[in-house]
Amino acid sequence: MDPNASHIIEVVDQKKSTKQRLDALDGQSTRLCVAVEAIEKKVETAEAEIRELNIQLEESRMMCAAMTDDVALLPDLREEMEAMRLQLQILQRAVGNGQAPAQEYAPRLKIPELRTYGGARDAKEVENFLFDMEQYFLATNIEEGARRVTTATMYLGGDAKLWWRTKYANIQANRVQIDTWDLLKEAIRTQFFPENVEYQARRALRELKHTGSIRDYVKTFSGHMLDIRDMSEKDKLFTFMEGLKPWARTELQRQKMADVSTAMGAAECFMDYQSEPRKKRLQVNSQSRGRGNRSFKPTSNTNGGERYSHHKGGHQGGYQGNHQGSY
């Protein structure tokens, strides 16, 4: 065979083979493009689904937040349900006894906002804060110890708040235990009560004398008593009586006072003759004689002390009006 013809045949065969390969590549390229388009569509679909899932996730978060708020309201709802249950029991008992309830519903108590305690080292400030908190617990029906501690510490401010933050850190580290209202009261008193306040109050009571009006004496005595927590009733009455002027002390002893509260109430009704104008005292004495009473008042004697004068006509009275049987 002619070499040229053989070469031409070989070239033609190679050309056919190359064309077949190109056709095969075109087919593969077409299939690849179709696959890529399908993948792109799937990616777009996946992105849309992800966006939808994100929206659903955000809605779920909002629902969880709303549920959290609802859960926070559960204690109040329980208290209201308990009040309704008690009211229902009262109504049922009233119906069972054939009686109508005295009132349908009691008005809801409006509790005033409490003042915060800022850490003032003043015995009266501390005791007033503790007393107000106890009244608040009664009004809001808070009985559980831990809730009382949490509620009370929310009303601490200033230095008291800083002190409680330190205490709270120790509580979290199990170094200190303050989980009842009594323990918290003890801790607050220990931290913020002035030093020797009770000693100073006892000393002031020992030196207190009735030199001005009886009302001023009673007011000062009551203020000092607030700083003393363990004085017996007999000691209170004795200390109060010893500070009075002799004529007032004698009159209270005659009435046989049983406790200091009754004695202070009776003493405040006495007429302070030394502090009242002479003209007014004469008018009161004249009115007492006109009613058939005789007045009770101290007069000076030659020894510098006091003696007691009783006008004719009725029972003794060292204060305004008829006091017999008032106490």
From TrEMBL:
It comes from Abeliophyllum distichum. InterPro entries: Retrotrans_gag_dom. Keywords: Coiled coil. The keyword Coiled coil applies. The keyword Transcription regulation does not apply. Residues 283-304 have a biased composition (Polar residues). Residues 277-327 are annotated as: Disordered. Residues 152-246 form the Retrotransposon gag domain. Residues 36-94 form a coiled coil. It holds the Pfam family Retrotrans_gag. It comes from the Eukaryota. This is Retrotransposon gag domain-containing protein.
